[in-house]
Amino acid sequence: MILSIQTPDALERAVQALRQGEAIAFPTDTVYGVGAHAFLPDAVRRLYEVKERPLQVPIPLLLPDARAMEQVCEEVPPLAREIAAHFWPGALSLVLRRSPRVPDIVTAGGPTVAVRVPDHPWVRELCRCLGAPLAATSANRHREAEPVTAAEVQAALGGRIPLIIDGGRCPGGVPSTVLDLTVSPPAILRPGPVTAEQLAPWLG
């Protein structure tokens, strides 16, 4: 089902599907994402199946606000708080040490997790209403083009997920920059909308 983001009960239906362990698709400030309840391992496993994503490739988390880092990160260093205050909400993912609360399947068993607060009020509200982060990645099959419209999501994942939230064309069109804060100096793992020049004051 494709449901307009303007539909009065769109948020409620999205939360219900996520709590039932489903993966759903939605717009973000970068590209369309497909996500699952991050604290339900079976739901995250379903997300891998939907995307045909190898289990050894970790999945990032979307958060409602910077305070939510405390839920999923073992420690939040001052540098992470400073960078988050400057760039969030926005197209920057920060890699930090994961909390034991984060299921192994989210991080492929690794010690770190990538977190982001998207610059999309509806998605942040979705996380708040769910009461949990979203394990979320681009709404395409693994290694295919990232979708920027609901129609592109339908073409890629139609029949694999029960709900696509249509919020129009995504304004960004490029996946987020990924910055690893578990190494010194911090390292850009994936270039994106937030540039190395913008991050230079924190890169050492």
Gross morphology: globular
CATH class group: Alpha Beta
Give me the CATH fold name: DHBP synthase
- Architecture per CATH nomenclature, i.e. the level-2 architecture: Alpha-Beta Complex
How many discrete structural domains? 1
Mean pLDDT: 96
Q: Uncertain spans, ≥5 residues at pLDDT below 50?
A: none
- Kindly report how far apart the N and C termini lie: 47 Å
Query: In DSSP terms, counting alpha (H) and pi (I) runs of 4 or more, how many helices?
Result: 8
Largest sheet: 8 strands, mixed
What Rg do the Cα atoms give? Answer: 16 Å
- Extended strand count: 10
- Can you identify the CATH superfamily? DHBP synthase
Structural class: alpha/beta
Write a concise keyword list for the protein shown above.
alpha/beta; 10 strands; 8 helices; DHBP synthase; 204 residues; eight-stranded mixed beta sheet; two-stranded parallel ribbon; 32% helix
What does this entry show, briefly?
The protein is of the alpha/beta class and 204 residues long. 32% of the residues lie in helices and 20% in strands.
Can you walk me through this structure?
The chain is an alpha/beta fold. It is 32% helix and 20% strand. The strands form 2 sheets. Strands 2-3-7-4-6-5-9-10 form an 8-stranded mixed β-sheet, with helices on both faces. Strands 1-8 form a two-stranded parallel sheet. The longest helix has 11 residues. The radius of gyration is 16 Å and the shape is globular.
